[in-house]
């Protein structure tokens, strides 16, 4: 035991140290050395009843958006905890962690029961709810350490210690100005914190800042919040490192909790992982929780499971690929389907974690190996090092591909995996020489140098920061051997290739591993020549046009296993120029030449495809038919014929004959294949994202949002890819600006529907307001008898409408239904309550669609004519004109019913005196058979409706309103304003929503949906 000092407290602590530290895992030497070094620093040890000191490193300040006090009423908590709360308060007061307060601030407390201790005594944790204060607190942007970076620093350490600070937050003082903001209350008083409390928004960044300033320059120390890890290669070094840490704690008056501190461990639990000299493993407790996790059946449960397993994703190879069925279930508008793939992914992740490999801690003195791979849906990588003759993993990484990346070719996905993996593991490999291992040869992807936005340039610049070698490891399929076995070349051809062609693999390695992109162009030219492909500078001698190879993954896999070598030497291949006509149908290309003997040459194409070029000087040879039938694929839908510039009429006739001949072959044998003829050389765009970017560039930038065919005609002069018109149509039809601003040249004219027909008078009415000569008339029309009623009103107010309805109901029976438009004079509480009181149903038409109220609108036009005739040359008042007009209207015969509205309504014909005696008998007969007449009238009305509807619908169409985004005609637009406004339509509610307002919408007011 070291010599005792004059401080009795320190001497007492020194004596207690052997009983306070955990030594069961230590041998004698380790125990003696740890005890000795701790006894040298009794000042840093806090016992249970010692007062907690504070550090001078910094003070915590609460910066709020304003100085208005935050006050929240106290929560009620169980009576049984009140004594425990007061004990906790007294303890905090005694340690001068809190003090009594007069602050206007207040945050409520809550009590959380803790697990019983070893003696079985129950304890509580007093929690202060600072959420309202935190919402006004300005965020401290100080970053927490990256967990991967922390693990990367440990290396091959064999000794670990974990120091626990005693109530770490409470060892940091509050800034005096911020003390009142921490106030809280119990039933016995109002208090505020002098030390930094738990629960404050910026408390973790403040604590991390303090720890970083304390230990940032000390080697072999990791700090993550209150977890302080010391690691060393041997015991003596470990003791030295501990002394350095203890000295720094002593200088800044910080205390540690010995009973929670681990010394001289050979393995250590840190941030959910077990760290040892063997590497990193998951925490067994976490693995147990994962093993017991039930099959997730809700979105929340899926997120919980993926969050739990995702924390250990670096320990699972191809995690993203395996978890894809689970992640797909989280996509928008996806219904959760628990199928076999879903269950398999869930069980596989659980199983792999239970048997996860031990990851090695990186040794930065040794080179790294980065192995990459790609599938149709994900990319993955393994960072490893050669240790004792074995490649042992340091970390696995993977991610799923987005929808755009899923359309990449196989080679693009493999190269994407390389670029992404280098970026992901940059902290390990940057500035160090390392090796990239891939089972795929990304050679021909580099052909597309002609593209201004080529991924080649972007990815090349990203890889230029790294120093690496590319090593190709053999995969399950030997592609080259397979190709040679299918088409064995003659010996002389192989020799010609060996002597005349540079090695593409060597060129690619040089390109990828070049320290800077300065010589990129030279390397690419060499590579282009090696691969027999075209770059921008190859103007004199070029191959036939590139064709787009954008096909699905199944074609990719098939092509991988069927790459053909050249059947003849380069000396037999004719140099093709722009004057050479060629047929280009996806994978198969026929090149017509003048003079060379016939030969068929399979040429390796970009993206693992093979193009078969067949050279012939006999355009009418039967062999053309044979090879067309052999190689043309009926599922390919586009073909291209490149013809030369016309030199004379004879050439023109020859090439026309060639075109007709080959067109007939294709049309006869493959009717689904479209053969097109072009006279200019065009540029292939193979990447779907660049295709869309090109369309957008011309549509938005160069043609000012012109239409589909204008953009198509412009692009076809320079570019080619399959289904170009279809893609242009899709892009332009989805342009939101075009939908809002452009006129609807072919507006929707929805078919008319036959409305319900009433079976008697006074059953169904339509109501509206007629504006006549500066005055207003409230009108009603009977949908059965066509009888019209009118009431002059002073204003179009709800009160005037109710008064008019009262007048009507005082003379006639209550109708079942009244139909109005959406005017506020009808759609209000006063009118609705009046009609509801009289048991009258209300129906409102679709906004801005007058056809829905067509009956009364037609009656208005007739009534206006009658009123104008009556008024002509007279000085009558509106009331008199209206009375005379209604008499004339209601006594005029309705053409299709052959009766007047009054006849139908009352069963009495309006006649002159001379006619009374003649018609008396007919009126009596009408009364006797009134029901029969009503049925006859209804049949006439229904037949008339059907006839009229069928006639009008001959020029109309039935269009279903699309679910989701729609564009609605804006009635307020001017010439310089958008014609349509964007909204959303729900089939379930049949309502459109614009700016959070929902309303009915008629299809005729929508912009025609385009596909």
TrEMBL record:
GO cellular component: DNA polymerase complex
EC code(s) of this entry: 2.7.7.49
Keyword Ribonucleoprotein: no
One Gene Ontology molecular-function label: endonuclease activity
Example GO biological process: DNA integration
Keyword annotations: Endonuclease, Hydrolase, Nuclease, Nucleotidyltransferase, Protease, RNA-directed DNA polymerase, Transferase
Record-linked SUPFAM superfamilies: DNA/RNA polymerases, Ribonuclease H-like
PROSITE patterns: INTEGRASE (PS50994), RT_POL (PS50878)
Region described as Disordered: 534-574
Domain Integrase catalytic: 757-909
Biased composition annotated in UniProt, kind: Acidic residues: 535-558
Ranges of residues in domain Reverse transcriptase: 93-275
Enzyme class label: transferase
Domain of life: Eukaryota
Comp. bias (Polar residues): 559-573
Pfam families from the UniProt entry: Integrase_H2C2, RT_RNaseH, rve, RVT_1
Name the record gives this protein: RNA-directed DNA polymerase
Source species: Triatoma infestans
């Amino acid at each position: 035991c070291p010599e005792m000092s004059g401080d009795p407290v320190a001497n007492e602590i020194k004596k207690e140290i052997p009983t306070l530290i955990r030594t069961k895992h230590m041998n004698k030497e380790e125990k003696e050395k740890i005890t000795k070094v701790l006894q040298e620093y009794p000042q840093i040890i806090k016992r249970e009843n010692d007062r907690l000191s504070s550090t001078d490193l910094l003070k915590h300040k609460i910066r709020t958006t304003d100085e208005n006090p935050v006050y929240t009423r106290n929560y009620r908590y169980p009576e049984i905890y009140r004594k425990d709360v007061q004990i906790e308060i007294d303890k905090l007061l005694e340690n001068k962690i809190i003090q009594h307060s007069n602050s206007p601030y207040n945050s409520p407390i809550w009590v959380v029961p803790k697990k019983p201790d070893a003696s079985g005594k129950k304890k509580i944790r007093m929690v202060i709810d600072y959420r309202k204060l935190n919402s006004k607190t300005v965020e401290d942007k100080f970053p927490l350490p990256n967990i991967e970076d922390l693990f990367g620093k440990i290396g091959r350490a064999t000794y670990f210690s974990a120091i626990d600070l005693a109530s770490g937050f409470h060892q940091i003082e509050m800034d005096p100005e911020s003390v009142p903001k921490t106030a809280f209350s119990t039933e016995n008083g109002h208090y505020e914190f002098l030390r930094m409390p738990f629960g404050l928004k910026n408390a973790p960044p403040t604590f991390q800042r303090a720890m970083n300033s304390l230990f940032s320059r000390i080697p072999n120390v990791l700090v993550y919040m209150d977890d302080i890890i010391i690691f060393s290669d041997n015991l003596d070094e470990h003791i030295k490192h501990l002394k350095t840490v203890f000295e720094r704690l002593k200088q800044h008056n910080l205390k540690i909790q010995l009973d929670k501190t681990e010394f001289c461990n050979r393995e250590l639990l840190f941030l959910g992982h077990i760290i040892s000299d063997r590497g990193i493993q998951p925490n067994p407790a976490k693995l147990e929780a994962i093993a017991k996790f039930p099959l997730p059946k809700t979105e929340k449960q899926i997120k919980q499971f993926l969050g739990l397993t995702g924390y250990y994703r670096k320990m699972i190879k191809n995690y993203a690929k395996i978890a894809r069925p689970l992640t797909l279930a989280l996509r928008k508008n996806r219904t959760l389907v628990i199928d076999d793939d879903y269950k398999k992914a869930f069980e596989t992740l659980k199983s792999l974690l239970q048997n996860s490999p031990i990851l090695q801690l990186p040794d930065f003195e040794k080179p790294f190996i980065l192995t990459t791979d790609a599938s149709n849906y994900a990319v993955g990588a393994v960072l490893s090092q050669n240790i004792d003759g074995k490649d042992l993993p340091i970390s696995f990484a993977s991610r799923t591909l987005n929808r755009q990346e899923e359309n990449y070719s196989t080679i693009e996905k493999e190269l994407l995996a390389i670029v992404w993996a280098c970026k992901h593991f940059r902290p390990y490999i940057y500035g160090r020489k390392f090796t990239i291992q891939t089972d795929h040869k990304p050679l021909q992807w580099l052909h597309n140098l002609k593209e201004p936005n080529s991924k080649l340039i972007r990815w090349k610049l990203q890889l230029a920061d790294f120093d690496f070698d590319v090593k190709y490891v053999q995969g399950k399929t030997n592609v080259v051997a397979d190709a040679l076995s299918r088409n064995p070349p003659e010996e002389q051809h192989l020799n010609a290739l060996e002597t005349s062609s540079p090695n593409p693999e060597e060129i690619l390695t040089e390109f990828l591993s070049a320290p800077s992109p300065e010589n990129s162009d030279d390397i690419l030219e060499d590579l282009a020549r090696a691969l027999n492909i075209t770059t921008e500078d190859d103007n004199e001698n070029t191959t036939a046009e590139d064709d787009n190879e954008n096909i699905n993954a199944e074609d990719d896999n098939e092509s991988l296993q069927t790459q053909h070598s050249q059947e003849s030497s380069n000396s037999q291949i004719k140099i093709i120029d722009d004057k050479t006509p060629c047929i280009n149908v996806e994978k198969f290309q026929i090149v017509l030449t003048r003079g060379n003997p016939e030969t068929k040459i399979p040429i390796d194409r970009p993206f693992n495809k093979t193009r078969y070029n067949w050279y012939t000087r006999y355009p009418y040879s039967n062999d053309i038919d044979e090879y067309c039938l052999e190689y043309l694929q009926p599922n390919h839908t586009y073909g291209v014929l490149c013809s030369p510039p016309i030199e004379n009429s004879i050439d023109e006739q020859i090439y026309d004959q060639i075109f007709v001949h080959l067109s007939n072959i294709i049309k006869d044998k493959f009717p689904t294949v479209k053969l097109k003829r072009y006279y200019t050389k065009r540029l292939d765009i193979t990447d779907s994202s660049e295709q869309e970017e090109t369309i957008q560039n011309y549509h938005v930038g160069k043609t000012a949002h012109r239409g589909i065919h204008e953009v198509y005609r412009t692009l076809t002069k320079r570019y080619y890819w399959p289904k170009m018109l279809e893609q242009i149509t899709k892009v332009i039809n989805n342009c939101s600006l075009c939908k809002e601003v452009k006129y609807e040249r072919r507006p929707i004219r929805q078919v008319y529907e036959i409305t319900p027909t009433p079976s008697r008078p006074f059953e169904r009415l339509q109501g509206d307001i007629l504006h006549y000569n500066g005055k207003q008339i409230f009108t009603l029309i009977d949908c059965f008898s066509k009888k019209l009623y009118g009431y002059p009103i002073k204003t179009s107010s709800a009160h005037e409408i109710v008064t008019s309805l009262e007048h009507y109901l005082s003379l006639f029976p209550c109708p079942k239904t009244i139909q109005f438009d959406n005017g506020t004079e009808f759609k209000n509480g006063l009118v609705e309550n009046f009609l509801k009181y009289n048991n009258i149903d209300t129906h409102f038409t679709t906004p801005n669609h007058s056809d829905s109220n067509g009956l009364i609108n037609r009656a208005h036009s007739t009534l206006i004519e009658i009123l104008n005739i009556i008024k002509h040359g007279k000085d009558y008042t509106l009331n008199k004109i209206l009375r005379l007009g209604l008499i004339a209207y209601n006594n005029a015969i309705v053409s299709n019913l052959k009766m007047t509205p009054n006849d139908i309504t009352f069963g009495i014909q309006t006649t002159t005196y001379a006619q009374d005696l003649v018609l008396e008998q007919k009126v009596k007969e009408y009364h006797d058979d009134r029901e029969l007449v009503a049925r006859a009238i209804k049949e006439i009305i229904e037949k008339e409706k059907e006839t009229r509807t069928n006639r009008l619908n001959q020029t109309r169409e039935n269009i279903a309103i699309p679910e989701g985004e729609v564009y609605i005609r804006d009635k307020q637009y001017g010439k310089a304003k958008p014609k349509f406004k964007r909204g959303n339509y729900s089939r379930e509610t049949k309502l459109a929503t614009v700016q959070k307002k929902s309303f009915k919408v008629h299809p005729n007011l929508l912009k025609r949906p385009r596909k």
